[in-house]
Design goal:
two-stranded parallel ribbon, single chain, Rossmann fold, alpha/beta, three-stranded parallel β-sheet
Length: 265
């Protein structure tokens, strides 16, 4: 379908070989799953019922059962972040463990340049599918490779590759810089679950006398009101690891800065 769908009918089967191959996979015991980014739904440009009708029409045309995950925002569920994949593995696979060795991920957002093959003039709109598979540890193929047997085309990954970072590299630049402060300050670590926030901060801040305050659950969020932090903050250097991937969730720290009358937030 279109990169930005607008109606239930703006799609077609990419290649005639696709339905047969999917039916073959189903007969061999494979589960067929779609992971799709649809930010236009979250931004109000595409009504959910229209996209749902499109998905139902595609499933009917293919003639195989499909499990579909749709990321409608820009947070932890949007590819190439693994939110949808983790949800499948932990909560939506009937308690069965997913076999990475026997699984394959097929996607057209593969980072291929313009003119990557004869008659294929457009470059891929992103590299999110290839990166998604890389993050999940899945074998990756483009539709042309998987359904048509084409050889792998040229592609480019983002310039920054975290795998290339030297874990023994110098932590500070310049080397004599200090991560901690001698005066009171509040350090807020923002990132996705399991990104390493608490590990890093406990290793480098708690060891230097900082107090650790954790966002345990939504029920306890009231503890992290600006008024609570304003009363606590002047006493101790502190840090809080927070997920808060959305802008409105981070606005509270502007309030903290205002109530604390401090610049060091």
């Amino acid at each position: 379908g279109k990169v930005f769908p607008i109606s239930p009918d703006d799609w077609r089967i990419l290649y005639p070989e696709v339905p047969h191959k999917l039916k073959q996979l189903q007969s061999e015991g494979y589960k067929l799953v779609i992971f799709t980014n649809q930010l236009s739904i979250g931004r109000g440009r595409l009504r959910p019922e229209i996209f749902k009708a499109k998905v139902e029409a595609v499933i009917e045309r293919l003639g195989v059962p499909l499990q579909v995950f749709v990321a409608t925002g820009s947070g932890m569920y949007r590819k190439p972040v693994l939110g949808m994949w983790d949800y499948l593995c932990k909560k939506a696979n009937g308690g069965l463990e997913v076999s990475l060795q026997e699984s394959v991920y097929v996607g057209d957002a593969a980072g291929r340049p313009a003119n990557w093959a004869p008659g294929q003039k457009k470059k891929d709109f992103s590299c999110s599918d290839r990166l998604f598979a890389l993050n999940a540890g899945l074998l990756f193929h483009t539709p042309e490779e998987y359904f048509l047997g084409w050889k792998q085309a040229l592609f480019a990954l983002p310039d920054f590759d975290p795998r290339a970072v030297d874990p023994k590299a110098q932590l500070y630049d310049p080397p004599n810089a200090s991560l901690t402060s001698s005066s009171s300050e509040l350090v807020v670590a923002v990132g996705f679950p399991a990104a390493g926030k608490s590990t890093f901060l406990k290793k480098h801040l708690v060891s230097d006398g900082y107090t650790y305050i954790n966002q345990v659950s939504n029920e306890r969020l009231k503890l992290f009101s600006p008024y609570f932090i304003a009363s606590f903050f002047p006493l101790y250097p502190s840090f809080l690891p927070f997920r808060t991937p959305l802008v409105h969730g981070r606005n509270v720290w502007h309030c903290v800065k205002h109530h604390c009358k401090q610049e060091k937030v």
